[in-house]
Amino acid sequence: MDESTRRLLRFCLFLQGFAFLMMGGALIVRALILGWDVVTWILTALLIVIAGAGVWTVNRLRRG
Asked: How far apart are CA 25 and CA 16, in angstroms?
């Protein structure tokens, strides 16, 4: 894996971590204030997708 690809993957991992923190915060606030509704479940699904993408990115960086 060349250096530009590694740099891009590290930046993607940073963005995924930031998105995970922001969505996690939104999920916690929404669940505490409004309870569990459809939007809260959508945020939960998005959090799982972001975590999966982060794990994939970390594995890709380790392999390369």
From this structure: 14
Tell me how crowded residue 29 is: count the other CB atoms within 10 A of its CB: 10
Tokens at 41, concatenated: 């479940």
In order of 18, 26, 52, 60, the CA distances from 40 in angstroms are: 19, 9, 18, 30
Query: For residue range 24-61, what is the model confidence (pLDDT) as tens digits?
Result: 999 999 999 999 999 999 999 999 999 999 999 999 99
In whole angstroms, how far apart are CA 18 and each of 4, 38, 50, 55? Answer: 21, 23, 10, 14
Residue located via tokens 């590694």 = 6
* Distance separating alpha carbons of residues 1 and 18, to the nearest angstrom: 25
Q: Tell me the two tokens of residue 49.
A: 């997708």
What is the residue type of 64?
G
pTM of the model: 0.86
